[in-house]
Design brief:
It is built from nine helices and 13 strands. The two termini are 22 Å apart.
Length: 314
Protein backbone atom coordinates (compact mmCIF):
# COMPACT_ATOMS: atom_id res chain seq x y z
CA UNK A 1 0.00 0.00 0.00
CA UNK A 2 1.57 3.25 -1.19
CA UNK A 3 0.95 6.47 0.71
CA UNK A 4 0.14 9.40 -1.59
CA UNK A 5 -0.07 13.12 -0.83
CA UNK A 6 -1.39 15.71 -3.28
CA UNK A 7 -0.03 19.16 -2.39
CA UNK A 8 -2.48 21.51 -4.09
CA UNK A 9 -5.45 19.13 -4.26
CA UNK A 10 -7.91 22.01 -4.64
CA UNK A 11 -6.52 23.07 -8.04
CA UNK A 12 -7.81 21.69 -11.35
CA UNK A 13 -4.94 19.23 -11.84
CA UNK A 14 -4.94 18.17 -8.20
CA UNK A 15 -8.66 17.46 -8.26
CA UNK A 16 -8.29 15.38 -11.42
CA UNK A 17 -5.47 13.33 -9.90
CA UNK A 18 -7.61 12.82 -6.79
CA UNK A 19 -10.52 11.63 -8.95
CA UNK A 20 -8.29 9.08 -10.70
CA UNK A 21 -7.49 7.48 -7.34
CA UNK A 22 -11.11 6.86 -6.29
CA UNK A 23 -11.25 3.18 -7.23
CA UNK A 24 -7.65 2.22 -6.50
CA UNK A 25 -7.05 -0.24 -3.69
CA UNK A 26 -3.26 -0.07 -3.83
CA UNK A 27 -2.88 3.44 -2.42
CA UNK A 28 -3.69 5.35 0.74
CA UNK A 29 -4.26 9.08 0.41
CA UNK A 30 -2.75 11.40 2.99
CA UNK A 31 -5.19 14.27 3.48
CA UNK A 32 -4.21 17.59 5.03
CA UNK A 33 -6.65 19.58 7.15
CA UNK A 34 -8.22 22.27 4.98
CA UNK A 35 -7.14 25.07 7.32
CA UNK A 36 -3.53 23.81 7.25
CA UNK A 37 -3.03 23.34 3.51
CA UNK A 38 -0.80 26.44 3.38
CA UNK A 39 0.92 25.66 6.68
CA UNK A 40 4.49 24.65 5.83
CA UNK A 41 4.96 22.48 8.90
CA UNK A 42 1.77 20.53 8.13
CA UNK A 43 2.69 20.23 4.46
CA UNK A 44 6.17 19.00 5.33
CA UNK A 45 4.71 16.35 7.61
CA UNK A 46 2.46 15.06 4.84
CA UNK A 47 5.20 15.17 2.19
CA UNK A 48 7.70 13.27 4.32
CA UNK A 49 5.12 10.68 5.37
CA UNK A 50 4.36 9.87 1.73
CA UNK A 51 5.84 7.43 -0.76
CA UNK A 52 4.74 9.77 -3.57
CA UNK A 53 3.88 13.45 -3.41
CA UNK A 54 2.21 15.23 -6.31
CA UNK A 55 2.83 18.96 -6.56
CA UNK A 56 -0.09 20.81 -8.17
CA UNK A 57 1.09 24.27 -7.27
CA UNK A 58 2.41 27.54 -8.68
CA UNK A 59 6.13 27.39 -9.47
CA UNK A 60 7.38 29.16 -6.35
CA UNK A 61 5.27 26.96 -4.07
CA UNK A 62 6.46 23.83 -5.89
CA UNK A 63 10.09 24.81 -5.37
CA UNK A 64 9.31 25.44 -1.72
CA UNK A 65 7.61 22.03 -1.41
CA UNK A 66 10.69 20.25 -2.75
CA UNK A 67 12.77 22.03 -0.10
CA UNK A 68 10.36 20.76 2.58
CA UNK A 69 11.07 17.16 1.60
CA UNK A 70 13.71 15.63 3.88
CA UNK A 71 12.68 11.98 3.54
CA UNK A 72 15.08 10.38 1.02
CA UNK A 73 12.50 7.74 0.17
CA UNK A 74 9.77 10.20 -0.87
CA UNK A 75 9.32 10.51 -4.63
CA UNK A 76 7.99 13.79 -6.02
CA UNK A 77 5.98 14.28 -9.20
CA UNK A 78 5.72 17.97 -10.03
CA UNK A 79 2.96 19.24 -12.31
CA UNK A 80 4.24 22.85 -12.25
CA UNK A 81 6.61 24.51 -14.71
CA UNK A 82 9.39 24.77 -12.12
CA UNK A 83 11.51 21.70 -12.93
CA UNK A 84 10.72 20.73 -16.53
CA UNK A 85 14.05 21.89 -17.94
CA UNK A 86 16.09 20.82 -14.90
CA UNK A 87 18.46 18.02 -16.01
CA UNK A 88 18.37 16.51 -12.51
CA UNK A 89 14.66 15.78 -12.96
CA UNK A 90 13.14 13.14 -15.23
CA UNK A 91 10.85 14.54 -17.91
CA UNK A 92 7.58 12.68 -17.57
CA UNK A 93 6.91 11.69 -21.19
CA UNK A 94 7.90 8.01 -21.42
CA UNK A 95 6.75 7.61 -25.04
CA UNK A 96 9.48 9.92 -26.33
CA UNK A 97 12.05 7.15 -25.99
CA UNK A 98 13.58 4.42 -23.87
CA UNK A 99 15.92 6.89 -22.18
CA UNK A 100 12.96 9.00 -21.02
CA UNK A 101 11.16 5.96 -19.64
CA UNK A 102 14.28 4.65 -17.88
CA UNK A 103 14.94 7.99 -16.21
CA UNK A 104 11.35 8.03 -14.91
CA UNK A 105 11.82 4.53 -13.52
CA UNK A 106 15.08 5.34 -11.75
CA UNK A 107 14.35 8.89 -10.59
CA UNK A 108 12.83 10.22 -7.36
CA UNK A 109 12.01 13.52 -9.05
CA UNK A 110 9.76 13.68 -12.13
CA UNK A 111 8.48 16.82 -13.88
CA UNK A 112 5.13 16.40 -15.63
CA UNK A 113 5.16 18.00 -19.11
CA UNK A 114 3.11 21.09 -19.82
CA UNK A 115 -0.10 20.56 -21.76
CA UNK A 116 0.87 22.50 -24.90
CA UNK A 117 4.43 21.22 -24.63
CA UNK A 118 3.17 17.63 -24.60
CA UNK A 119 1.48 18.05 -27.94
CA UNK A 120 4.41 19.98 -29.37
CA UNK A 121 7.28 17.70 -28.37
CA UNK A 122 5.24 14.66 -29.41
CA UNK A 123 5.33 16.04 -32.96
CA UNK A 124 8.75 17.67 -33.17
CA UNK A 125 11.06 15.53 -31.04
CA UNK A 126 10.82 12.37 -33.21
CA UNK A 127 11.51 14.35 -36.39
CA UNK A 128 14.64 15.96 -34.98
CA UNK A 129 15.73 12.63 -33.50
CA UNK A 130 15.36 10.98 -36.91
CA UNK A 131 17.09 13.79 -38.80
CA UNK A 132 13.98 14.86 -40.71
CA UNK A 133 14.05 18.45 -39.50
CA UNK A 134 17.16 20.26 -38.32
CA UNK A 135 17.40 21.81 -34.84
CA UNK A 136 17.45 25.28 -36.40
CA UNK A 137 14.24 24.78 -38.43
CA UNK A 138 12.03 27.90 -38.03
CA UNK A 139 9.21 26.11 -36.24
CA UNK A 140 5.75 27.66 -35.88
CA UNK A 141 3.09 26.17 -33.63
CA UNK A 142 -0.63 26.91 -33.37
CA UNK A 143 -2.78 25.44 -30.61
CA UNK A 144 -6.28 25.57 -29.15
CA UNK A 145 -7.31 24.60 -25.64
CA UNK A 146 -10.41 24.40 -23.52
CA UNK A 147 -10.66 27.01 -20.80
CA UNK A 148 -9.98 24.52 -17.98
CA UNK A 149 -6.25 24.92 -18.59
CA UNK A 150 -6.35 28.60 -17.64
CA UNK A 151 -6.97 28.02 -13.93
CA UNK A 152 -9.72 28.65 -11.42
CA UNK A 153 -10.20 32.36 -12.07
CA UNK A 154 -10.58 31.87 -15.83
CA UNK A 155 -12.92 28.91 -15.32
CA UNK A 156 -15.11 31.07 -13.10
CA UNK A 157 -15.22 33.80 -15.77
CA UNK A 158 -16.17 31.35 -18.54
CA UNK A 159 -18.86 29.69 -16.42
CA UNK A 160 -20.35 32.89 -15.06
CA UNK A 161 -23.89 33.73 -16.16
CA UNK A 162 -22.73 37.34 -16.56
CA UNK A 163 -19.60 36.62 -18.57
CA UNK A 164 -18.21 38.96 -21.20
CA UNK A 165 -19.53 38.18 -24.71
CA UNK A 166 -15.93 38.14 -26.00
CA UNK A 167 -15.38 34.83 -24.21
CA UNK A 168 -17.72 33.20 -26.71
CA UNK A 169 -15.05 33.43 -29.41
CA UNK A 170 -11.54 31.92 -29.46
CA UNK A 171 -9.02 34.22 -27.81
CA UNK A 172 -5.39 34.28 -28.91
CA UNK A 173 -2.97 35.03 -26.08
CA UNK A 174 0.76 34.97 -25.15
CA UNK A 175 1.05 37.71 -27.77
CA UNK A 176 4.56 38.74 -26.68
CA UNK A 177 5.90 35.24 -27.44
CA UNK A 178 6.75 34.69 -23.77
CA UNK A 179 4.53 31.71 -22.94
CA UNK A 180 5.81 29.72 -19.96
CA UNK A 181 5.99 26.48 -21.97
CA UNK A 182 8.44 27.84 -24.55
CA UNK A 183 11.71 26.95 -22.74
CA UNK A 184 10.45 23.39 -22.30
CA UNK A 185 9.27 23.14 -25.91
CA UNK A 186 12.68 24.24 -27.17
CA UNK A 187 14.83 22.10 -24.88
CA UNK A 188 12.91 18.83 -24.90
CA UNK A 189 12.23 18.91 -28.64
CA UNK A 190 15.92 19.57 -29.31
CA UNK A 191 15.50 22.93 -31.07
CA UNK A 192 18.18 25.58 -31.32
CA UNK A 193 15.58 28.36 -31.03
CA UNK A 194 12.19 28.74 -29.43
CA UNK A 195 9.28 28.34 -31.87
CA UNK A 196 6.75 31.02 -32.71
CA UNK A 197 3.83 29.89 -30.58
CA UNK A 198 0.22 31.00 -31.04
CA UNK A 199 -2.15 29.50 -28.44
CA UNK A 200 -5.89 30.11 -28.28
CA UNK A 201 -8.27 29.61 -25.37
CA UNK A 202 -11.75 28.56 -26.47
CA UNK A 203 -15.25 28.26 -25.09
CA UNK A 204 -15.31 24.57 -24.11
CA UNK A 205 -14.04 22.93 -20.93
CA UNK A 206 -11.29 20.46 -21.80
CA UNK A 207 -9.46 19.13 -24.84
CA UNK A 208 -6.57 20.42 -26.92
CA UNK A 209 -5.07 20.31 -30.38
CA UNK A 210 -1.54 21.39 -31.29
CA UNK A 211 -0.51 21.96 -34.91
CA UNK A 212 2.95 22.37 -36.46
CA UNK A 213 3.12 23.21 -40.21
CA UNK A 214 6.19 22.22 -42.23
CA UNK A 215 7.56 23.15 -45.64
CA UNK A 216 9.04 20.02 -47.20
CA UNK A 217 11.62 22.10 -49.08
CA UNK A 218 13.09 23.17 -45.72
CA UNK A 219 13.35 19.69 -44.25
CA UNK A 220 16.80 18.27 -43.51
CA UNK A 221 15.87 15.01 -45.21
CA UNK A 222 14.01 14.75 -48.52
CA UNK A 223 10.85 12.91 -47.57
CA UNK A 224 7.25 12.77 -48.76
CA UNK A 225 4.21 13.13 -46.57
CA UNK A 226 3.47 9.38 -46.48
CA UNK A 227 6.98 8.47 -45.39
CA UNK A 228 6.99 11.23 -42.79
CA UNK A 229 3.77 9.84 -41.34
CA UNK A 230 5.31 6.36 -41.30
CA UNK A 231 8.35 7.66 -39.41
CA UNK A 232 6.10 9.04 -36.68
CA UNK A 233 4.13 5.80 -36.58
CA UNK A 234 7.36 3.84 -36.15
CA UNK A 235 8.45 6.11 -33.31
CA UNK A 236 5.21 5.51 -31.39
CA UNK A 237 4.78 1.87 -32.33
CA UNK A 238 3.37 -0.18 -29.45
CA UNK A 239 2.72 2.91 -27.31
CA UNK A 240 -0.39 2.39 -25.26
CA UNK A 241 -1.64 5.96 -25.15
CA UNK A 242 -0.27 7.55 -28.33
CA UNK A 243 -1.53 6.50 -31.74
CA UNK A 244 -0.61 7.88 -35.16
CA UNK A 245 -3.64 8.00 -37.44
CA UNK A 246 -3.54 6.96 -41.09
CA UNK A 247 -2.55 9.71 -43.51
CA UNK A 248 -5.03 12.62 -43.49
CA UNK A 249 -6.91 10.92 -40.64
CA UNK A 250 -8.55 8.39 -42.95
CA UNK A 251 -10.88 6.14 -40.98
CA UNK A 252 -10.36 8.15 -37.77
CA UNK A 253 -11.91 11.54 -38.50
CA UNK A 254 -15.65 11.72 -39.10
CA UNK A 255 -15.29 14.81 -41.26
CA UNK A 256 -12.54 16.97 -42.71
CA UNK A 257 -11.99 18.67 -39.34
CA UNK A 258 -10.07 17.80 -36.17
CA UNK A 259 -12.26 18.64 -33.17
CA UNK A 260 -10.07 19.45 -30.18
CA UNK A 261 -12.28 17.91 -27.48
CA UNK A 262 -12.78 14.38 -28.84
CA UNK A 263 -10.36 12.77 -26.35
CA UNK A 264 -11.56 14.65 -23.28
CA UNK A 265 -11.45 12.72 -20.00
CA UNK A 266 -8.92 10.20 -21.34
CA UNK A 267 -5.13 9.78 -21.23
CA UNK A 268 -4.92 9.25 -24.98
CA UNK A 269 -3.20 11.27 -27.67
CA UNK A 270 -3.77 11.03 -31.42
CA UNK A 271 -1.31 12.31 -33.99
CA UNK A 272 -2.37 13.32 -37.50
CA UNK A 273 -0.32 14.07 -40.61
CA UNK A 274 -2.17 15.88 -43.37
CA UNK A 275 -1.54 18.15 -46.34
CA UNK A 276 0.59 17.25 -49.36
CA UNK A 277 4.21 16.64 -50.31
CA UNK A 278 5.01 20.38 -50.40
CA UNK A 279 3.14 21.62 -47.32
CA UNK A 280 2.67 19.27 -44.41
CA UNK A 281 0.75 19.80 -41.18
CA UNK A 282 1.28 17.75 -38.04
CA UNK A 283 -1.39 17.76 -35.36
CA UNK A 284 -1.76 16.18 -31.94
CA UNK A 285 -5.01 16.13 -30.01
CA UNK A 286 -5.54 15.05 -26.43
CA UNK A 287 -7.06 16.19 -23.16
CA UNK A 288 -5.18 19.12 -21.63
CA UNK A 289 -6.27 17.76 -18.22
CA UNK A 290 -5.43 14.15 -19.17
CA UNK A 291 -2.29 13.36 -21.14
CA UNK A 292 -1.54 17.07 -20.75
CA UNK A 293 -1.64 17.04 -16.92
CA UNK A 294 -3.23 14.63 -14.42
CA UNK A 295 -3.20 11.54 -16.65
CA UNK A 296 0.48 11.98 -17.44
CA UNK A 297 1.25 12.44 -13.73
CA UNK A 298 -0.54 9.23 -12.72
CA UNK A 299 1.03 7.35 -15.65
CA UNK A 300 4.48 8.38 -14.40
CA UNK A 301 3.63 7.23 -10.87
CA UNK A 302 2.51 3.85 -12.18
CA UNK A 303 5.78 3.46 -14.09
CA UNK A 304 7.76 4.40 -10.97
CA UNK A 305 5.80 1.81 -8.99
CA UNK A 306 6.62 -0.85 -11.58
CA UNK A 307 2.97 -1.64 -12.29
CA UNK A 308 0.85 -1.43 -15.46
CA UNK A 309 1.23 2.18 -16.60
CA UNK A 310 -2.46 2.35 -17.49
CA UNK A 311 -3.70 1.56 -13.96
CA UNK A 312 -6.51 3.97 -13.10
CA UNK A 313 -6.38 5.65 -16.51
CA UNK A 314 -8.94 5.57 -19.33
Amino acid sequence: MYKIFIDGKEGTTGLKIFERFKNRGDIELILIDEEKRKDNAARAECINASDFTFLCLPDAAAIQAVALCTNPATKIIDASTAHRTNPDWAYGFPELGAEFRQKIISSKRVAVPGCYASGFVALVYPLIKRGIISPDYPVVCHAVSGYSGAGKKAIAKYESSERDFELESPGEYALTQEHKHLPEMKKIAGLSYEPIFNPYICDYFNGMSVTVPLYSRLLAKKIGIKNLRDELAAHYENCRFIKVAPLNGEGVLNASTIPANTLRDTNEMQIFVFGNDERICLCSRFDNLGKGASGAAVQCMNIMMGIDEGTGLL
